[in-house]
Amino acid sequence: MGTDDIDHEIIDSIERWAERELRPVARKFDHADEYPEDIVEQMKGLGLFGATIAPEFGGLGLSASTYARLVMSIASVWMAPVGIFNSHLIMAACVQRHGTDAQKRQWLPRFASGEIRGGIGLTEPNAGTDLQAIRAVARRDGDAYVINGTKTWITNGVYGSCFGVLVKTDPAAQPRHKGMTMFLCEKGEGFRAAKKIRKLGYKSIDSAELVFEDFRVPAANLIGGEEGRGFQQAVGGLELGRINVAARGAGIAAGALRDALRYAQQRETFGKPIAQHQAIQLKLADMATRVEASRLLIEQAARKYDTGERCDLESSMAKLFASEAGVENSLEAMRIFGGYSYSTDFDVERYYRDAPLMCIGEGTNEMQRIIIARQLIERNPV
Amino acid sequence: MKRILVAIKRVVDYNVRIRVKPDGSGVITDGVKMSINPFDEIALEEALRLKEKGIVEEVLAVSIGTADCQQQLRTALAMGADRAILVQTDAVIEPLDAARIFRALCERETPLLAILGKQAIDDDCSQTGQMLAALWGRPQATFASKVEINGDVARVTREVDAGLETIEVDLPAVITTDLRLNEPRYVKLPDIMKAKKKPLDTLDPGALGVTPVERLKPVKFEPPPVRAKGVMVKDTQELIDALRRKGLA
Questions:
Q1: Which of A205, A229, A253 is the last residue of a domain?
Q2: How many Å lie between the alpha carbon of B36 and the closest alpha carbon of chain A?
Q3: Fewer Cβ atoms within 10 A, N terminus or C terminus of chain A?
Q4: Counts for chain A of helices (H) and strands (E), in that order
C-alpha cells in the first residue's frame, strides 16, 4: 500500500469526522465562544495532537503536504479547531527539531498523545512582527531560570498547560537575536493565563495573555540546552507555520465555495436558480479558481519543505494568496447568499469573520510581500 | 478461533449525487468518491463491538470486486477488523454469486456469525444475506436493530413492517443489519498506520468454486423524474378538497 493511499485514507477519515462531528456543533460553539471540550477529546483519539510528531515518539509523522491537506479539510468546515492542534504542533516541532535527546524522550510522547497540550509563546504586547524587540527575560538562578514578562495572543493560552516561550537571556546582546532563548514552560506558580481575548472570529479557541512573575523554570527545559538559539528556533518554524496558515485560508475559501455552489443551485430568482445567472456564475468561477490556485501553491511549498529545500518564497506566496482567497471567497459567498449571509443561521458569516485572521497571523501579508520581493531580487540579480 | 465474517461492498459514497452516464449504460463512477456501503459499515461496527465484548476473537472483512475494493478493506482494517480477504474479479457480481462466494468462505472460515448489510445502496437488492443463509444451511435474522449473543443463540430484534420483532436463532447464523443497529465509529489516524501491517489476502472466485454468471441484463439506467412543484393549501379543508379532486380521499 503506497503513501498516496495512506494519505488518501487519512484525508478521507478526517473529512468524515469533520462532517459528522464538527459541522453540527460549529455554529453553536462559535456563537457561544465556548471551548469545544468534546471535540478536543475526539481530536486526541484521532491522533491529531501527534500529526507531525515522528512515529518513534508516538506521532503519525505526517509530511507537510499531507498535514496541509488535513488542515484544509478541517478548516473548510470550521477553521478554529485547527488552532488547537496546530500551535501545539509548532511547539512539538521546536522540540523535535532543536531539543536534546532527553527533551525529545521526555516531552514528545506526551505531546503526541495530547496528554500535555499547549502552544508557542512569541508575541508580546509591543513585539509581534519585530520579534527581536521582545522584553520577557529569563535570569539564571542555580539549576533554574527565573522568567518575568508578558506574552499575548497565545493560542491555547487558557486550556493549554505547556508552552514554548521565547525570552531574552541576554537583553544587552548585539545582534539582539543572540540573547534570545526558548524554554518549555508548564503552568505553575508564577505562570498564569491572565485574560482571554475577545475576538471578531476564530472563536471558541482561547487566545490569551500569559503572565510570568518570577516564574522558575528548570534549566533542563531550555530547548536544545544552550542559550542564544531561541530566535532561530522560533523563526525556523515559520515556513511550516505559513504553509499551515495558507491551508487554513484555502480551507475557508473552499468552504465558502462549497456552500455558495450549493445555495446557488437551490435559490431561485426570476424563475431560475441563481446559478443560471451569469452574474453568479462569474463569482463561482473566480472562487473555484482561487481555491484551486491556493491548493497548488500550498502543495508546491509543502513538497519543497518535505524534501528539505528552502521554501520561504513559496510558503510566503502560498500564505499570501490562500489567505486572501479566504477573505475574497467568504465575501463573495456573502453576496451569493444575499440577505441570508447576514443571518447567523448560516455558516458563511463565520467564514467571513474567520478569514481576515489568516491575512494577519503568522506574518502579515504585507510582510509576506516583502519576503517575496526580497527573494525575487536575491534570486535574480542583474 | 471464534470469528465473525463481515461483508464489505464498495459503493458510490452516500453523499454523492448520482449521475447517470449519457448513454444510459450505468452510473458515473469515474472520479466519484467511493466508500463502504453504509449498511456494511454498521455490520462491521457490530462485529467489532461483539469482539470488544469478548464474544469472538477475530473479525474478518470480505469484499468481492475489482482491485480497488482494497481501499474499502483497508478502511475496514483501520476501523478494527483483524484481517481481510478480497475475492478479486472484474465480473459483474449478482447477489446469488456473492452469496455463493460468501458460503464458500463461511465453510472455510467457520465463523460464528456472518454479518452483512441488509442491502447495498447501489442496487438495493437486499438478497445476499438471505441467499447466503439458504446456501449455507444456517438460520437468518434480517434487518437487525439489536443483537445479543447468549451462548449458542443470537437474540435479534428485527425492524419489520408492523414494528419490531424479536427472534432467536441458533449459531452459526446470518444477520443483516438495519440502519438503527448502531452508529459506526470513525477511523482514528494511528489505526490507519497500524492497518498497513494487517493481512489482506486476495483470492480468485474460481478458487472458491464460483464462476460468476450474469443472469440479469440491465436495459437502461435513467435518473428518477424531477419532482413536480407542490401546491400550497390554506387549511385542512382545502387539503381534503384537493385530495378528493385527485380521487385520493
A1: A229
A2: 12
A3: C
A4: 12, 9
For cell 515518539, what's the residue? A57
On chain B, the residues whose CB falls within 8 A of the CB of A48 are 189
Contacts A–B by Cβ distance under 8 A: 46
The three grid cell numbers given for residue A73, joined into one nine-digit string? 479539510
Of B210, B246, B216, the C-alpha closest to B228 is B246
Domain boundary at A229, A255, A279, which?
A: A229
A309, A362, A366, A378: the catalytic one is: A362
Mean pLDDT of A322-344: 96
Q: What is the CATH number of the domain that holds B89?
A: 3.40.50.620
Residues A152 and A212 occupy one common structural domain? yes
* Cβ-based neighbours of B124, under 8 Å, separated by 6 or more: none
Q: What is the pLDDT of residues A90-129, one digit of tens each?
A: 999 999 999 999 999 999 999 999 999 999 999 999 888 7
* pLDDT value of position A1: 45
Number of domains in chain A: 3
CATH number at residue A36: 1.10.540.10
CB contact A4 to B (< 8 Å):
no
Q: How many domains does chain B have?
A: 1
Asked if A34 is an active-site residue, the reply is: no
Domain ranges, residue A175: 119-229
Nearest-CA distance from B87 to chain A in Å?
Answer: 18
b/e sequence A21-40, b meaning 16+ C-beta within 10 Å: bbeebbbebbeeeebbeebb
pLDDT tens digits, B33-52? 999 999 999 999 999 999 99
- pLDDT class of A2 with cuts at 50, 70, 90: low
The percent of residues above 70 in pLDDT, for chain A, comes to: 99
Contact between B74 and A47 using a beta-carbon 8 Å cutoff: no
Residues A124 and A218 in one domain: yes
